[in-house]
Amino acid sequence: MTRILVTGAFGQIGTELTQALRSRYGAENVVASGRHLPGDDTVAGPVEKVDVTDSEAIVDTIRNYDVRVIYHLAAILSARGEQDPQSTWKINMGGLKNVLEAAREVGGCRVFWPSSIAVFGPETPADQTPQDTVMRPTTIYGITKVAGELLGDYYFHRYGVDVRGVRYPGVISSGSPPGGGTTDYAVDIFYEALRHGRYTAFVREDCVLPMVYMPDCIDAAIKLMEADLSSLNHHNGFNLAAMSFSAGQLAAEIKKHLPGFVCHYEPDERQAIADSWPRSIDDSVARREWGWQPQYDLARMTADMLDTLRERQQAGR
Questions:
Q1: Which residue positions in the chain have pLDDT lower than 70?
Q2: 150: which residues sit within 8 A by CB, 6+ positions away?
């Protein structure tokens, strides 16, 4: 069985992706790694402390476990990135370069690396943003994602490293807390709605952004990595979308389940980042080349989020 390494395995996406990979391929075949390890057994199976800025540690881990597939998720996200651009470049770009170089050095490794809608900027068409378009981001996070896509293309064409990836929109998850992204309001709002019946969003009521629910997010990563390479023309940086909605529309959907819920809006510096991103995404290339098909829309996602979080509250977790 092929051994898999997940970097950033204890973050928002990494936590649930690692669990899904272990369910699919066997817990013993998926190595979870991170700069800081969890203090409990929430991720049962092989665990390694790996800082992605340490190139030798990456190579050693790949060789020690005979890894052939890498899901490289370790990164600093958009809002946190603006607070520390230097660290963001070091981790996002330096970490990716180290992983790609390790894959080249060891040989035979397939790499998944997620890009983001943060690659787009104010000059990009905001509605039904096409696969191939202007990419001039205004954040250091977005800059690292554009550079990362180009670096992935370089390693694919220059060295034959099978690098694949998608441009994730905002990711909504019930399994782990958000990690400092501009779309975190779309996760926080559910927790606050259940706990306090109210929430203050840091974006405008009419702020529309593309989103994806975590089960679809995980399915996309695995499905792309399992796709036949010969079917992929855009192997790295596929547009990905599932739904687009405003903060007000999300609040209204929650209110259908919690009639007393009240949402206020106090935009902060994250609004400027959101304004530079698309409102909707054309992901027809991903649908055509490897069969991407999301299962969750706003209504189904909202109902599932609330049900899952209620169950967790009742269980005392």
A1: 39-43, 177-179, 316-317
A2: none
